Structure prediction request, 396 residues.
Amino acid sequence: MPCTIEKEKQHMAASDTMRQVRKRIKRNRKEKQVRRRDWLRAYMEEPEALEMLPQRERIMPPGERGRRQAVLNAALATLEDQGQSRAIGPIPQGEIHSGIVVEVSTGLCRVHWRGRELLCPLRGSLTAEDTGLTNVVAVGDEVVLAEDGDGQGVIEAILPRRSALARPHVFYSHLKHVIAANVEQLLIVASWRDPHFWPELVDRYLIGAQRNKLEPAICLNKIDLAENPLEYYAAVQPYQALGYRVLLTSALNGEGVDELREYLRGRSTVLTGLSGVGKSALLTAVQPGLELRTGAVNSESHQGRHTTSQARLWPLAMGGAVVDTPGIREFGLRGLKRPELVRFYPEIAAEAGRCRFANCAHIDEPDCAVKKAVTQGHIPEMRYDSYCKIYATLED
Prediction:
């Protein structure tokens, strides 16, 4: 019995010694490195490589379906940030003769192709499904046509967009509606009166231009209706101080039309603004040959009537093109969160760091440096007022 007990003690001591040795080895052992790759870059450079991934590699998030969806979502988000998109439909090999969509109506598109305009339907396989958009084709799109026997065409594919002006869907915030594609600059047209200058809507368009990677400018029309020019100079001064280009025009007497013409020359521009601000009248003044409808403003409501019922692209004789759009009273900013709004107001962001609270919303918090700057006149009250109104419509 004593011998057995002694052997058991020796065995336990040996086990303790081995346990200590294993701990020292484990502490000194280098942690196994998990192999990782930049899957987004790999997908962008070689999409087909997605199908040949080693099965033993650890990929986040776990699960084949989840991983592939994450890679695809990241790739699409990057493309959207660059103002680009995927092609829709099969692109033929070899030389492509593309046309430009100049007008879109239900089921049909008017396409400028080889010096003439064709009324073309879309191939039935072309849908907006899985694109994140409500419309598969928009004014300004470059499309691939197939001619039929009657001298007409069928849209077979839409080429990738270089840029786009889009706004969120009214009811489905995850979807967007493309107003115009492949444009370079956004001209926000407002009027001094009839209808009155509306800073909040101008600011919404400026935010939309920045989110869509477009170069914005502001055109204040109907300055002939101002009793004192100092009034509209004061209204646009905050935008000029921020570096935005401002054009002061009157389609009635031609003031500022030459400057507007030079701004449009050789560029692709989309015009936005309320009905009745004079978008069509200004384009007619720039190029009299354009067959655009214009209408009078309602004398009681001081609101314009919709003379432009749908977006239309007009090539300019001097080079470039403009997209005339219907009047829009609301330019939604769905997807923009409240904390992100301040970065679209540089003058407010410059003061925000002095606020008492780091997460100050600059609405009703105490010791707010932004509100103090507004009181002291360092931030225009007009801009701060539109900031507050837009902030109230956004999600947390």
About this structure: Residues 31-62, 68-84, 294-307 have pLDDT under 50 and may be disordered. The domain at 338-393 is CATH 1.10.40.50 (Ribonucleotide Reductase Protein R1; domain 1).
